[in-house]
Amino acid sequence: MLFVYRIVDLGVMTPCQKILETVMQVKADIVGVSGLITPSLEEMIYVAKEMERNNMKIPLLIGGATTSKIHTAVKIAPKYNQPTVHVLDASKSVVVVSTLLDNRLRDIFVDDIKEEYEDVRQDYNESMQEKHYISLQSARANALSLDWKDFIPAKPKKVGITVFRDYDIKSLLPYIDWKPFFDVWQLRGKYPNRGYPGIFKDKDVGFEAKKVFDEAIHVLDTICQDKPVKAHGVIGLFPAYSLGDDVVVLNDMKTERIATLYGLRQQEEKERGDYLLLPFRLCLPKSH
């Protein structure tokens, strides 16, 4: 059976009011919101509250790099009385949407999600009760201290912005993560043939996985040959130094501060001798 969906893309940083107005205008069946940065998490909670306040009756899908099943179950789902589902990545959205729109499968799926999220909330609340936190001052006193005296960082060939235009697509093919592709087709191998290329050896899905893979490779070969699309990339390498819990980024001439990456130090109480770390602590301090 072929499912065809019309997607109304409202872009990025769309105000909640605009989302709700569009939902009512187009009579949407499902709302999907995606969060790539931390502030988006709070905005998603607000969207859920507003959908509840407006007495909406459609499912809410949560996705994006900063989201998680725990955050969805603990912070978002309780604010909205309709199905609220965390979707791990874009490849899963097709399956979730088709299930939610199928009258035969919807109720069972929604009940399973509610039960699963209730378990997630209970586990989260229990884990929070077991954790003990220390003051930020004490955490900083127990930071990892490194000896930078004899360390000389390697200098990149080029500092600043580097743009890669019309990059050879064929050279990118070995870096493709095929897992989302097979997930879209609901092809999942069993251990030890779970991932690519082992999935081709799986006795249940191996044949079909190899078939759709070969078809995809044929499409990619056509793209490489005919070049209907182009690949561009941008990277930036900049001087930086650590300042307390943060990292200061300078321009390529080291004459101007262009960004500050704010660090969040661990504060959970640990065993004696364990350091409380930062996400990016391996950066020379300014004094060096």
UniProtKB/TrEMBL annotation:
Species the sequence originates in: Geodia barretti (Barrett's horny sponge)
Classification via Gene3D superfamilies: Cobalamin-binding domain, Cobalamin-dependent Methionine Synthase, domain 2, Vitamin B12-dependent methionine synthase, activation domain
UniProt keyword annotation of Metal-binding present: yes
Protein name: Methionine synthase
Pfam families the record matches: B12-binding, Met_synt_B12
Start and end residues of each AdoMet activation domain: 127-288
Residues of the B12-binding domain: 1-111
Alphabetical GO biological process terms: homocysteine metabolic process; methylation; tetrahydrofolate metabolic process
Cellular component GO terms, alphabetical: cytosol
